[in-house]
């Protein structure tokens, strides 16, 4: 019999009988055997890999994380998801997103092109080194 995670003092007086105390004791012992830190859905770098799809949904990151991405890339994106969302639609967001995928980019805005490009357009040149993902 291991130590219970739930103290018996938490059993309300109205149901505090031998059967309820045994149930709480058994449930508390089962909880004590679990590593509850792996169930934490707020730490993308340490959460159990099987929970990553749930973390993607919990963070509303479906548009940023493809389920076919390698596990370490999913974790990297999820760890930066709030910053990535705040920069969505900006050059800095594109740069961050590509960096999280293991790539780098060079952007040229339309007004910096020679000759000047079509207004409100840009060219992006991105590269990814071998083994960077």
Automatic annotation (TrEMBL):
<dbReference type="Pfam" id="PF09684">
    <property type="entry name" value="Tail_P2_I"/>
</dbReference>
<protein>
    <submittedName>
        <fullName>Phage tail protein (Tail_P2_I)</fullName>
    </submittedName>
</protein>
<dbReference type="InterPro" id="IPR006521">
    <property type="entry name" value="Tail_protein_I"/>
</dbReference>
